[in-house]
Amino acid sequence: MHLTDDTAVQTPTQESPSPAEFTTFMRTYQNMVYSTAARLTCDPAQAEDIAQEVFLRAHRGFGQLRGNPRAAGWLKTVATNLTLTHLTRYRKRWVFFSQLQNDEDGGDQTELDFAADESVFADVEADQRQEQIEAALRRLPEHQRVPLVLFHFEELPYEEIATRLRVSLPKVKTDIHRARAALARILAQRGIDVAELQA
Amino acid sequence: MNSPQHDAERLAQHIHATLQRLPPLKAPATLESRVLRELARREARPWWRQGFGRWPLAARLLFVPLSAGFIKLAFLSVGAFGSALNSAQQSMVLSTAENRWQTLSGALQSLQTIGALVFQNVPQIWIYGALGFALLLYGSLFGIGAAAFRSLVVTPHAAR
How many A×B Cβ pairs under 8 Å? Predict the structure, then answer.
């Protein structure tokens, strides 16, 4: 069976799940679906709306998702597509103004420090660090955050990101490069070295 | 000493590893109840407001011949209506259309005359000045809109 992101939309329900069964299904995947939307939109209310729509579509095509090992991938793809569609409503303004922003950001590339041997912040708890990284992501401007999330979380190649966002390939590469630098800089301001996090 | 290219690659690796290790965000507690409530609301709709696939079998079976019957009836009605029109009615319809066209063309001619009068009697410098002023206003409003969009929408978090 081949699942596409429109499968559930096109396929009438063969067998509706019971509320208990669907609740279990939602509990398994809701964090993943919500994360995908929230990291792209940076807006909890919009992310919840998108997650709701994803699960409503899943309910319509539940006959094909039930017990399917590819269900997670399908949900993630639908969540990504719906979020990008949502963002696309503002795409023209976003592309235009992000070009202006890019010109201004040109001089902000600073030297980065890597892998210090000791860290004075070694006692920071892991969950606090995770929250700080999420907060740093939220501080990135949208034209940098969206391609960064698509590349590092969704693991889409540069070419597909450029196609999805309808921007040029060099712009995607530049935005992602600047997003990484900006993220490292924001984390450094909070005393977190990205190189140390891997240790 | 590391080259900038090497630094960029290392940064990409570090960022990738860092982000990949982040656990998913916790979905709001309200999401589950929202979805279930919306599903219940949709289930409660009468069958004719749901998708065709969810209609009762008898309704689906009846729908096809009934639709075909309606289409045939529509074609028959159009044919009967066409043949019932006599030539007098046709000429009346045509004359009405002709009157409308004459009114429209008269209005266009009046507009043309007014435009010509304005260009003859108002100094051209005033006209170009007014056009320039309108463009200036448009540019200013666009600039204000762009500044507002960038400060309020593009970088809302940086502004906080």
Answer: 121
